[in-house]
Amino acid sequence: MRRRWRVALIVAGVVAVVLVGVLANSEALRATYWTARAENCGSLAINMNTLVTSTADAQHAETCYAQAAAHCRPAVLLVDAVDPASNATYSFLVEPPIGAAGACELAAGADVSDGTGDSNTVAPCQRVTQTDKALKFAACGGLGDVTLPAIHAGAAIIGSSMPAPPSI
Predict the structure, then answer these.
(1) Whole-model pTM above 0.90?
(2) Interhelix angle for 2-25 vs 27-35, to 10°?
């Protein structure tokens, strides 16, 4: 009888460790978890690669996100991008660590709808920096480098590793 309990406890422990490992390392699961708990920093509207959100609103949203990233507080910034070929919603997320051994992460997600179908991508970003004219994300997986303008009518830029369309 004791042996059964011991085996059951070992199996339960192994399952728990594996589950925590999967949850902590799966970017899509982490993003889902933190999106539900994140401060909403606002949204930016991009039309034909040009920011149409007012400068004041864009700067407020980007400052909110940059400060959350600097202090590793959960936060999300949404970007709606429209061009003739596609519609896309990008989400930029600050993900605090899950567990004692974790680290703060930045993630970028893209939900793209074009004439050929829909796609969804979530990838970690290496870092984010804020200037008075833009919020710049470095090395966001398949999205590449992303620059979100903070001034009305400013141009949005995504690195060359971004598949076409969409571009923001």
Answers:
(1) no
(2) 80
